[in-house]
Amino acid sequence: MLTWNESDKRAFLGCVATLVDDYLRDAQAGAIPVSEPQGPEELEASFANFGGVQLGRAPGLPPSAAQDLLAKIVATSVHTSHPRFFNQNFAGPDLLAIGGDWLGAALNTTAATFEMAPAFTLMERALLHRMALMAGLAPEKLGPEAPPQGLMLPGGSYSNLFAMQLARHRADPDINKRGDRNRRWSVFTSAAAHYSIRKSARLMGLGDDAVHIVECDDHDRMRADALESSIQESVAAGETPLFVNATSGTTVLGAFDPLREIAAHCERHNMWFHVDGCFGAACLFSDDHRRLMDGVDLADSLAWNLHKAMGMTQQCAALLLRESSALRGCFASDATYLFQPDKPYAAYDTGDLGFQCARRVDALKAWLAWKLLGDEGMKQRVERSTSRARATGEEIERRGKMRGWQLMAPPAFVSVCARWVPPPLRDLAVHEWTADQRAWVHRLQSSMRTEVARRGVGMLAAQPLSDGINCLRIIVMNPIVQHADIIQVLDELEAVGESHASVNSP
What we know:
By secondary structure, this protein is of the alpha/beta class. It is built from 14 helices and eleven strands. About 40% of the residues lie in helices and about 10% in strands.
């Protein structure tokens, strides 16, 4: 019977450390493919020597198998540290954040109480206060026993859900005791907003019908005049306007809603003003781009994910609040078996401020990276990425129609959306395409990005725009990206597009 002793397990940790170091060096240098896509059956075959991916009743593996197993896991994963990984709104985890995450896992505590996480509790308070200060939501000084300026949560979807629940509690403080009693609330969000707004409404029992989708302009920004019209229609239908979700950094185009205009409508109708800045709030680090979030200081809440543009490892998400006392009133259940008021420093406990009790010490990696890099280092990460995104847009415009490229919107932050059009359609406007031609271009974008990923050259997304046709979305978030990486991916996309278009025309 196989056994692992403590010495074997320590050797395993050393193996992991060496492998991670080697992997990050190779991935950042582009010395390995971005990915080597495999389907479920292929993956099972890849792990056959280890008994497959499925867990059964087979005996464990000997320590001698550990290194090969770890190498197989790395080889079959998507390499998000690679300079040609442009697929998601996270990429290129900072090495300092990786170290902080590993340290937090080793210490293996919970952020629920000061007793279990004394330093981490203060780190989270400091991190949240500094982020809220940057957004204009916090006072310059935070009292020693003042509630934290928000909470670290498992992701932006949770932040959006919490914000909606906080809005309902503010509008009806007795709801925790007597329930909702079928009051018809209404929620407003743009057509380009994150799907978690609709899911949040479902989880809260409001239903899809409570979510009013507000029209956007041609660049996916919420139209403030359309918001007012939607609110008026809701009131006329007997609903109570509750919550507006504005987006700073939409998923596809990376658009920023006009926050100051939206805030005026929220104030007029006494609605909670929430900003989903999970993707785009990192622009607050940049002197050149913070103007994109003009008016965020008027928000009641802000969702900000540091695991996106700031390179923290997943997850590292913050919900920031103007009224920091709102969390306790909305969520606290006063579980005295855990949160005893006579315990030393009980006022610092955070486990009763949200739905979770135990929480990872996610603040550690962000606090540590920020402490070591300083404000200037955090700013440089954002500005390197935005500069490279701008250069990518310029390269696509330079290639232009002659090489089949259409830039779908000027890069606002780090998202670059373009469409590659086959030669027969380049002199036609989109509205002149037939239904078959529209479907052809739509499929072509998807097949191009799939083939480029299959070859391991690069990874990017294909997503539909408001015209219903896919575009190619390149998110330039990793600061190590060089112009040569952009050139290589665009060249490869063109070659694949020419090849696929010649055999798949309608």
